Amino acid sequence: MTSTPVNQAPATGLPGASAGSAGLAGHNRISTQALTSVAKVAAADVLAVEPGQVRVNWSDDAGELALSITSAIGAPSLTAVRRNPGRVAISGGSILARATAAKAEILNQVEYLTGSVLSGVDIRISGVIPRDNGRVL
Fold first, then answer.
1. Residues 86, 80: contact at Cβ < 8 Å?
2. Average pLDDT value for residue range 61-85
3. Whole-angstrom distance, CA of residue 3 vs CA of residue 123
4. Which of 8, 12, 66, 91 is deepest in the core (most CB within 10 A)?
5. What are phi and psi of 54, to 5 degrees?
6. Residues with Cβ < 8 Å from 69, sequence gap 6 or more?
7. Over 60: is that where the pLDDT of 134 sits?
């Protein structure tokens, strides 16, 4: 897989664009490398880790793109949770709840930023990175 088609938006209202430019022949494509970079950053943001902690894999799902992510997740340390049990709720809930919610957030961000349509997002949490300095999300 080298690229994926994206929806082509009308160019009206942009500087230097004419009303007739929306009908130009051709298509736009976003490379797999660009899609991967966007997915890594989106996942890192949602999971409260650095992009280097995120691994992304693309696969074909009956003609649509499926995204698989393996990543650590930022979470309050056990010491912080013992001192303040409410810290789990403040950080967005349990690791399972956050990972489940992250699927939709990542899917929405990647689709919005790239114009691609994804069939789904699978997430595998590979570790926990303690975050005690403020909010995890």
1. no
2. 91
3. 22
4. 91
5. -105, 130
6. 39, 43, 54, 55, 56, 57, 106, 121, 122, 123, 124
7. no
Which class in CATH covers the domain with range 33-130? alpha beta
Write the pLDDT tens digit of every residue in 12-68: 444 444 455 567 788 777 788 999 999 999 999 999 999 999 999 999 999 889 999
% of the chain with per-residue pLDDT over 90: 51
Average pLDDT rounded to a whole number, residues 76-82:
87
Any idea what the Cα angle at residue 71 is, between residues 69 and 74, rounded to 5°? 135
Query: Rounded to the nearest 5°, which phi and psi values hold at 135?
Result: -70, 140
67 and 38 Cβ atoms separated by less than 8 Å: no
Q: Are 70 and 127 in contact (CB under 8 A)?
A: no
Tokens of 124: 């595998």
